Amino acid sequence: MAEIALTILSPVIEEAVSKTVSFLKKRIGIAVGLEKELDRLGDSLILIQSVIQHAEERQESDPAIRHWLQKLKDVAYEAVDALGECEYKVLKNKVKSGRHWNPESVYFSPLFRNRMADKINNITKQLNDLKDWASMINLVVSLRGQTCPRQHQKTDSFLDNSTVFEREADVSRILSLLRDLRSQHPISCISIVGMAGIGKTTIAKSVYKKAKEEKLYDLEAWVCVSEGFNYQIILREMSEHFSCTPWKSLRWKSINALLEDLAKILENKTFLLILDDVWNEDPDKGEHISSCLLKILNTTGSSIVITTRSGKVASAMESIPMQRYEMERLSDDVCWLIIKEKFLRSSTKTSMTPDLEAVGQDIAKKCGGLPLVASVIGGTLSRQTSADEWKDIRDDKAWNLNSPDGDKILSILKISFSHLTSPLKKCFSYCSIFPKNFVIEKDDLVQLWMAQGFLYQPNESSVTMEDVGNDYFS
User: Is the pTM of this model over 0.70?
Assistant: First the structure.
């Protein structure tokens, strides 16, 4: 996560450059008496900006560059804070002056000017030191990645069925296992096991959807568990799903009260419970949830489906019949089909040139049979316009890192992040402030992006900021 935090430097530096240029263009700097300091700061920021991309590409394999980026991160935020202070003073003066405000007539005290001049000069010196340091660690100027804003695209409201690409057989086999087990036991469990990015959650969603369509169970519930395994929260979410009771009215209920509620709800009924992304390998916790559910059931036919990276998780619920379903990697050909389908869906193109096909097939071989990687990379490729840009992605060193599967996938996904436009990087990075599994409405998130000034609206365009934000999701 620390590495990803460093890769958001590009938009931070860009924000500092934008503020500096804005002050100079509006001649506010002259009024404040900081025009020379701001001019030097702008030059230093632009020079640093030109080598950041090379640094971001090399940070995984070079500790010295990671340290350089960390230092730059500190200075960049100092610059943004200092410029923000100037901006605040100007806005405060503007509010006081009302409609008669003139940026060239703004007056600030000598004390403020001197203090800000010292601060900006100190930041400029640090940036120049970092620029000299950059040459010592062989960072070079990069012009790649300077992209134009995307044109607004029309979207549709249909469910994206491409997410279950070539996994229909897996869904059918798991549904068959569920039918066999539920006819024999009050409650049974299937554990879908596989490495990160292999499609466990996607398969579980498809199973959940099919089971609802076929009415295999009376009730269904989906609980995202992640690292914590709190059986009280699991029981609470089951009750919320089954009874449509608001979470707030259940949050203070004890385990015994929740079990009493569930016993009434589930009388002579069956249920399907999906426990997604389970990490718990503690048999006591798994035993507790399974024994609790067995106490309140009075009929056969209920099922639990677990998705997990760990084969040990299955043994943690051994008090109920358990089947383990191992997920297999996709073939290179299927990964290529996912990339191609994602490319054609996400871009305005209806076909692919032979040179792109050749490079794309090479990239598919690097996906390691993981549909998540293929899908994300396919979306990234849809924003690139030339074979050279595709070759840059194909030849990225992140593909070759020797690290555990989960870390390697994160490194590969960072390839996609590094090729996002600066506004998209800001929006994506902003989402890291929310805790894992936090639910937020898309419209609310777009409004937060707008409030932060992350959305780029083309000049003289009829497209609204909300349209721009919605387009970022596509």
Answer: no
